[in-house]
Write a structure and sequence with these properties.
Helix 7 runs antiparallel to helix 10, helix 15 packs antiparallel against helix 16 and helix 18 packs antiparallel against helix 20. By secondary structure, the chain is of the alpha+beta class. Among the domains are: 174 residues, no CATH class; 65 residues, no CATH class; 111 residues, no CATH class. The chain is flat, with a radius of gyration of 36 Å. It is 46% helix and 12% strand. The protein has a five-stranded antiparallel sheet with strand order 4-5-6-7-8, with no helix packed on it.
Length: 649
């Protein structure tokens, strides 16, 4: 079934570079140790979050919907999985690590085996020193994915035996377990391990042997038998891979910072040196004619327990004074027992950080942000007007939009939502088919499957509205409402439009309408964050200004036609001038514009199902079953199977 070997790496941690530490501290994965001073990494992440996530104000919606059924379901999915609260973290890891894996897990929610969907993400990337997952490709095709393996750390509650093992030193960390999950087109196969996996090669062989019915020695201590769950989205993978920067389809994504590692590390080293200069020379150096020992003794008595840095001790001076209660660098204002022939003075460092050094650090920071596709906030002080700020920050918006589309577009979360909608439609179709079989085809186990295969999505949609609205039956899942592709959009702008901006936009909209631009296109320009369905729903039916202008235009064209009909054409005296100028076509164009304006907000689907179509489809499906299996089911071939409430009345 599967190849016994796979193309892939392992989870062995690579040695951390200085850039890895900087990124890890920016992501909160490492504690600060004083070696990271550059702000280019966290600042770029902040810009991508602000423009790419916008506080989680993102809305997902199916391209085709009715009465917001799919929209409300997707919104509930996002709420149950806390996607809004996790958007910042997802964007940070995509920018900082290079690759995100979205996975959908089916979970049971009650005793009836109704399933919900858990959406989680894992972090990968080409330069990630400790990835959460890796992808194995088949031997036959380097672009065909065999499976993906996901590693996650889990905590377990302590027990007495574990506490004893910990005290005896048998296990260094008995409260940690690692979950290893292999995901293919058919199954989720999970293992619970007692130690962190480092070699995926042997683990992958163990996984392949299980699928083929064989047995190999487990590479790690497995706590229990593998847990296997069917993939409800088969034959599709229940995951999608979002890559930041990549060249080929089978190459891992690259983070934003690795291509600029030399510049970022150099900027960090320059800041470390500047910080040391500020620390050393922030206090003036004291010059005295008294011997060093007496000065040190006096300072120690004034400041309590003190200590010297190595340079001062080697040169016989006492430099940075501190104590436990007051860990700061201080000099006493007055030193007692001063004699007449003793002199004191201070030398203040006039230029702790030279101007050339400061300018170079600033230019390097601006260069890094520009190369990353962002903006250095300290480098735009020359842009005094709001318009110039918006122009500069347009670079951030373009960069962030590409990353946001990778995470949320038709290859990201939108793809998973479309798969979930398809699975919910399957549940709904099965329930409808079972209901129809129970009503008209008792005792035939093949009937439900045949009905599900024979009926079209349009028939199932009509049956859904009939059963739920006419009969009041509660059906699981979602009705088939057409195209399942999902789109996403922002519900909030980074720069909120002022009243002046809104007024200018409305003037442009009005002028566009008077120039003949369709209402939906003009409204899309006026409200770029609104979807087509929302524009339709927000309309009152027609624009009074356009309708009035269309009526006046039609009337003017009719008057012109009447006047020109009384005049002979100069080119052809046998015809009237109105006929040669084709004024009738202008009248027809005005009428078509008026009709299109009045019919713009008509919904795609009607709530009232087409009962004739439903009856014909059901009759055909039941007749097919009777002919194939010789069934003696109760087939109402000469009477309608379902009727509307008004017809029954």
């Amino acid at each position: 079934m599967f190849a016994t070997t796979g193309v892939g790496l392992n989870f062995n941690q690579k040695p951390l570079t200085q850039l890895d530490k900087i990124i890890g501290q920016a992501l909160g994965e490492m504690d600060a140790d004083g070696t990271s001073k550059t702000t280019t990494v966290p600042m770029h992440m902040a810009q991508m979050r602000e423009w790419g996530v916008r506080g989680g104000n993102i809305q997902f919606k199916a391209i085709q919907d009715f009465n917001n059924i799919r929209k409300e379901y997707i919104q509930q999915l996002c709420t149950n999985n806390y996607l809004k609260q996790r958007m910042d973290s997802v964007m940070n890891h995509l920018v900082g690590k290079g690759e995100i894996l979205w996975v959908v897990y089916p979970t049971k929610v009650n005793k009836l085996n109704d399933t919900a969907y858990l959406i989680d993400y894992y972090v990968g990337g080409k330069n990630n020193p400790n990835p959460d997952y890796f992808i194995f490709y088949t031997q036959e095709d380097e672009f065909e994915i065999d499976c993906v393996v996901v590693k996650s750390e889990i905590d377990i509650p302590p027990t007495e035996s574990m506490t004893y093992m910990n005290l005896m030193g048998i296990n260094s960390n008995p409260f940690k377990r690692w979950k290893l999950t292999f995901i293919n087109k058919e199954k989720y196969i999970s293992f619970i391990l007692t130690q962190e996996p480092t070699d995926l090669r042997s683990t992958y062989l163990f996984y392949c042997a299980l699928l083929e019915g064989g047995y190999v020695n487990a590479p790690y201590n497995i706590v229990s038998t593998p847990k296997i769950i069917d993939n409800p989205f088969a034959p599709e993978f229940p995951f999608t891979i979002c890559k930041n920067i990549f060249e080929n389809l089978n190459t891992p994504g690259i983070d934003d910072f690795s291509p600029l590692s030399d510049l970022i590390e150099e900027h960090n080293s320059l800041l470390l040196g500047a910080s040391d200069n500020l620390t050393i020379f922030s206090n003036p150096t004291m010059i005295t004619s008294r011997d060093a020992d007496s000065v040190v003794d006096e300072l120690e008595r004034a400041n309590g327990q003190g200590f010297s840095n190595s340079w001062a001790v080697q040169n016989g001076f006492y430099g940075q004074i501190s104590n436990k209660n007051q860990p700061t660098y201080k000099m006493p204002k007055v030193i007692g027992n001063i004699k007449q022939d003793e002199r004191f003075g201070y030398v203040q460092q006039p230029d702790t950080i030279s101007g050339d050094q400061n300018l170079f650090i600033r230019q390097l920071r601006e260069l890094i942000h520009w190369t990353l596709g962002g903006v250095d906030p300290l480098g735009i002080s020359a842009s005094a007007t709001f318009g110039e700020y918006k122009t500069l920050f347009g670079r951030i918006e373009n960069t962030a939009m590409k990353k946001a589309d990778a995470l949320f577009g038709d290859k990201g979360l939108g793809y998973l939502f479309s798969m979930i909608i398809l699975d919910e439609e399957r549940k709904c179709k099965i329930a409808i088919a079972k209901f129809m079989v129970a009503q008209y085809m008792q005792g035939n186990p093949m009937a439900a499957q045949l009905v599900q295969q024979e009926l079209s999505d349009n028939t199932f949609r009509n049956l859904y509205f009939y059963l739920t609205e006419q009969l009041g039956i509660d059906l699981p899942g979602l009705p088939p409402l057409g195209q399942r592709d999902c789109s996403w959009r922002y519900t909030k702008d980074v720069f909120e439009r002022t009243t002046r901006d809104q007024l200018d936009a409305s003037i442009v909209y009005r002028n566009s309408r008077e120039d003949g631009i369709r209402q939906d296109i003009a409204l899309a320009q006026l409200y770029p964050n609104m979807s087509d369905d929302e524009i339709r729903g927000s309309m009152s039916g027609f624009s009074p200004r356009v309708v009035q202008n269309a009526i006046e235009g039609i009337g003017g064209a009719l008057q012109l036609y009447q006047q020109l009909s009384q005049l002979r054409s100069p080119e052809n005296p046998m015809l009237s001038w109105a006929q040669t100028l084709n004024i009738a076509a202008m009248v027809e164009q005005g009428v078509q514009t008026l009709q299109r304006e009045l019919q713009f907000d008509i919904p795609d689907f009607k709530e009232e199902p087409n009962y004739d179509e439903v009856n014909a489809a059901l009759t055909q499906a039941l007749a097919t079953l009777r002919n194939q299996n010789g069934s003696s089911a109760n087939l109402l071939l000469n009477a309608p199977i379902i009727r509307s409430a008004t017809a029954d009345g």
